Amino acid sequence: MKTLLQLYSARNYQPWDGVLAQTAATGFTGVEPFAAVFDDANAFRALADRQGLKLPSAHVPLKLLEEEPDKAFAVCRTLGVELIVVPWLPEEERPTTRAASDNLGRRLATLRQRAAVSGFRLAYHNHDFEFVTLEDGSRLMDVLLAAEPALLWEADVGWLIRAGEEPLAWLDRYADRIVAVHLKDYVGGDSEGGWADLGHGPTAYAPIFDKLAYLPKLDYCVAEHDDPADFSRFLRRWMESFRNLSEAAGLK
């Protein structure tokens, strides 16, 4: 299984060359970049190449994809990306009604088709707001995936936990749409934003890994921590836990 670091986790631990060297030394396959490196994609690609790290997926802002798609696709080609992920929505743009949710679904469907023409796959990455019940009883996550059957999902297990959802139920419901997962845990409180390293929080991750082993389209397992107090600790713990859990589950 390809293991990636979501680069957002390291935003406070630059320079990037040091981050990438440490990521490679820990045993990761690659990195999932975000918009902070888009202005000089060639330079970042060179740093990654130097460490033998691939950049197969990237978090690309919805605004950039809609307003400057040619620029977004050019950056992704430079980086070597094949999976474009819509990473989040600003709070003021998050749908709170079924009509607004349907509209976002149509926008993502248009983007998915445009990305496909340009040779990319498109996925959506969740936070917690996608699981709030709308006025008709539906959930935004369901609405978005129903709007475009070819839209893929980068399922963030940590945010599912934070939303009070049962990750196994969602992984099972959309097993054939999930191409990547973000793996982290949630403990609450103020320390490190309430997040915990994989394998060092309250969640029983063994059943989740058992499910991951049978997801037919899963390509990438992504390490993420939104606010690690110790980046080295986070990398080391994540990889140790991932290897142990993967071996027990038969995830290859």
Provide the descriptors you would attach to this structure in a database record.
252 residues; alpha/beta; TIM Barrel; eight-stranded parallel sheet; two-stranded antiparallel sheet; 10 strands
How would you characterize the overall build of this protein?
This protein has 252 residues and is an alpha/beta fold. It has one domain: Alpha-Beta Barrel (TIM Barrel). It is built from 10 helices and 10 strands. The strands form 2 sheets. An 8-stranded parallel sheet has the order 2-1-10-7-6-5-4-3. The longest helix is centred in the middle third of the chain and has 20 residues. The radius of gyration is 17 Å and the shape is globular.
Please write out the topology.
Elements: E1 2-6, H1 16-26, E2 30-32, H2 41-50, E3 57-59, H3 62-67, H4 69-79, E4 83-86, H5 98-117, E5 121-125, H6 140-147, E6 152-156, H7 157-162, H8 167-173, E7 178-183, E8 185-186, E9 195-196, H9 206-212, E10 220-223, H10 231-249
Parallel strand pairs: 1-2, 1-10, 3-4, 4-5, 5-6, 6-7, 7-10
Antiparallel strand pairs: 8-9
Pfam family, one: AP_endonuc_2
Domain Xylose isomerase-like TIM barrel: 21-216
Organism: uncultured Pleomorphomonas sp
Q: Characterize the quaternary organization of these chains.
A: single chain
Low-pLDDT parts are none
CATH architecture level-2 label: Alpha-Beta Barrel
Structural class: alpha/beta
Query: Structurally, how many domains make up the residues?
Result: 1
Measure the end-to-end span.
5 Å
Largest sheet: 8 strands, parallel
- Please provide the ordered H/E string of secondary-structure elements: EHEHEHHEHEHEHHEEEHEH
